[in-house]
Every structure is written in C-alpha cells, then in structure tokens.
Amino acid sequence: MTLFTARLHRSAAFIGCMALVSNLLTSVTTAQTTVSTGGTSVHVLFQTDKWVTPNIHYKAGSGSWTTSPGVAMSASNNSAYPSNDGWFQFDVSSATSLEFVFNDGVGAVWDNNNNANYKVSVAGTYSVVSKVSDFKTGDLVRPSDGTGYHILFQPITWAKPYMHFNAGSGWTTVPGYIMTPSTYAGKFSAANGWYQYDISSTSSVEITFNDGNGVWDSNLNANYIRTSPGTYAFVNQNTAAPTTSPSVQGYINGPGYSVTSASEDAGVLTINLAVNTASTSTP
User: Fold this and answer.
1) Contact (Cβ atoms closer than 8 angstroms) between residue 184 and residue 87
2) Is the same domain home to 118 and 209?
3) Does residue 273 lie within any of the structural domains?
4) How many independent structural domains does the chain possess?
5) 12-34: pLDDT as tens digits
6) Closest C-alpha among 86, 19, 16 to residue 46
7) Which residues of 141-151 are buried (b: 16+ CB within 10 A; e: fewer)?
8) Contact 72/78 with Cβ under 8 angstroms?
9) Are residues 176 and 112 in the same domain?
10) Residues 154-169, mean pLDDT to the nearest whole number
11) If I label 243, which of 43, 52, 171, 253 is the partner at 20 to 30 A Cα–Cα?
12) What is the C-alpha separation between 117 and 176, in angstroms, rounded?
C-alpha cells in the first residue's frame, strides 16, 4: 500500500509538472494569433492605439536582425483588420519562420512580448494586439491622411457634444458645431461612445468642447491646440451635470444675449446694452 501510494504521489507530481509546462507553452504560443497558415511568406498584422508610425524589427529564419529600429509598417489593407481601427501590416516574403518585435518608429518605446519576442515557425498570417497602451486624452492616434484634422471626442455624460474651434479664420459661433457619431472602428467607434468632427484646415487649430448648454471642456481654460494635421482623440475632462439658467424677472436670459466664452467653471456674457444684442467675442 505504501509503494502504491508513493507511485500515486509521483504520478500526480508528474501530471502537475506537465500542466505547468503546458501553461507556459500556451502563454508563449498565444502571444500572437494565427489568422491563417500556408504559403511561403509571413504576414504580420499589428494593432496599436498609441503609435501612429510603428516599426517592426525582425529576423527571418537563421538570418540577421534588421537594423534597429527596424522597418516601417504600412496601414493595413485587410478589411478584417481595418486601418481605422489602428491596424498595420508588414509582409516578409520567402520566410517560413520569423522572430520579431515592434516599436514606436524611432526605437524609444518597444513591444517585445514582455522580453520574450514574438516568434512564429510556420508561414502564414499572424495578428498581434500591442501590449503597449498608454493612450492619453489629446493624443495623436492616426497619422495625417492629407485631408486635415479629424477630431474624436468621447463625451462620457453629454448627450450631444459640440466642438467650438478656431482654424485660423476666427472662432465658430458658440456653441460651435454638433459632432456626429464616429465612423471609426474598434476602440474609437460610435459603439464605444465616440463622436467626430473633421476640419479640412492644414494650419493649426484651437479647440474646445461643450454640451450645448454651457458646460465646457476647454482643457482647464488653456483650450486644446494642435499644429499638425492628423486624427486626435479627446476624452471629456468635465463631466459635471449641466445647469439650467433660471428664467425669472431681472435675470439676463433670452434672445439677444449669449455666452461668448466659457470654461469648466465660468462663463462670460458680453452684451451691447445700447442695441440690446450680444456682441462678438472669442474665448
């Protein structure tokens, strides 16, 4: 009985060891997702919500590594992995195995699969979702497409966000233009609460957001200023509930008066008393 019990313990220990090895292997092999196999090339799809011009640094087979920081990836043309959802691609022809890592395009920040690198041993198509994700409000999330500025905004608690801006020819009339549901896929999609507005200007832009009822996100009174076209994403920094202006005798409220500048915690009402109309102003 003692010998039998000892064998059971050794068997259990062996099974436990094999389970651990299996788990370790799984963590490595699932670092990238296999989309398809076959052919004589390796196709790499990479998704990032932070880097707008990522590089891939790789070694094909027993060859040498590319010169750091590697080679620029191109916007994905695979409809299942759309470029407007942050997907990029790179193809390595005549390769059946590949070891690779990614970086921000200049080699300052790397995604190397937690120091293990990404490795595939069969030709085919593989996808990787970046492990580096430190998106901050106002970040450039897509490079310029040559058509100006594309502004994405997540209002959080606002039902209808507006964008009030100056693209070089003066400020829009308060509250600005209503934003429309985002046409982007994935993280910045309408399903995730994102809205967008496009400005064809190639000069610098100064931007603020509001709910149409006097509640503003103006970057703590500094406004948002961008000088290079591209797609920028902003998350509402002012989620205070809107307040309704009282309509009582003696309170300035009604036609002919309007808020011409506002911030998170204050508004400015400019009135021409002689003609009883609102005068023009900018934030």
Assistant:
1) no
2) no
3) no
4) 2
5) 444 444 333 333 333 333 478 99
6) 86
7) bbeeeeebbbb
8) no
9) no
10) 94
11) 171
12) 48
CATH of residue 93's domain is 2.60.40.10
Domain, as residue range, for 203: 139-235
Rounded CA separation 169/175 (Å) = 17
What is the bridge-based pairing of β-strands 224-226 and 216-217? Answer: unpaired
Using DSSP's 3-state secondary structure scheme, residue 105 falls into coil
Terminal-to-terminal C-alpha distance of the chain: 87
Task: Confirm whether 256 is domain-assigned.
Answer: no
Which of 129, 154, 180 lies at the terminal end of a domain, its last residue?
A: 129
Q: Is the pLDDT of residue 212 over 80?
A: yes
Percent of the chain with pLDDT over 90: 53
Contact 49, 139 (CB under 8 A): no
- pLDDT (tens digit per residue) in 174-187: 999 999 999 988 88
pTM for the predicted model, two decimal places: 0.58
pLDDT tens-digit map of 228-247? 999 999 999 986 654 443 33
How far is Cα 26 from Cα 35, in angstroms, rounded to an integer? Answer: 17
State whether 84 and 35 are in the same domain: yes
CA distance linking residue 165 with residue 271, whole number of Å:
22
Residues 94 and 150 in one domain: no
CA distance 221 to 217: 8
32 lies in the same domain as 124? yes
Domain final residue, candidates 81, 107, 129 = 129
Q: Return d(Cα 217, Cα 53) in angstroms, integer.
A: 29
